[in-house]
Amino acid sequence: MAGSSEARSRLTAFGNQLIEVHVWLREQLEDLRDDVDDYFDGKGLPSRDLRAHCLSFCSALTRHHTGEDRGAFPVIADEHPELRKVISELKTDHNRIDWILGNLEKLLGNLPETPDPATAANVRAELEGLSAIMETHFIYEEKKLISVLNSMNVPGWREDKPDFLLTEDDDE
């Protein structure tokens, strides 16, 4: 039976789960970008629904990063002090992403009922910035932390999945 338990542990390795969450967040951002493009092209969601979609995405990304900052990163820093600089850099990225999310939420919170080119340019610029920093952040985080997370055994994380490993499907 030990072989079965080891196989299940490998299948549910925390680093692999983190990659799955990153893939899901990338997909959610792409969906938001598509909805923004549709809105500014005069088709798609009404402005209030677009704002709701943005808030949902922003909340999921914030929950993920807050979960890392408060849950995963302290555990990793304790067990792997050599990664403290990496964790500090990742937290700095989280702050930058939060700032962009705040800008995006403000822009989408003030959307005109009729799309206009100036607002479209501003929203798309924020989304481009968010996409760029998210992608570099995720790649760096995966490069530096996946093997460490996969080697960790934190029973509490298996019993009650922490926020940094949750997707929308987990909320249901």
TrEMBL record:
InterPro entries per the record?
Answer: Dimeric_xanthone_biosynth (IPR053206), Hemerythrin-like (IPR012312)
Could you tell me which Pfam families the record lists for this protein? Answer: Hemerythrin (PF01814)
- Specify the Hemerythrin-like domain's residue ranges: 18-147
Q: Protein name, please? A: Hemerythrin HHE cation binding domain-containing protein
Q: Which PANTHER family match?
A: EXPRESSED PROTEIN, HEMERYTHRIN-LIKE DOMAIN-CONTAINING PROTEIN
Q: Which species expresses this protein natively? A: Saccharopolyspora shandongensis
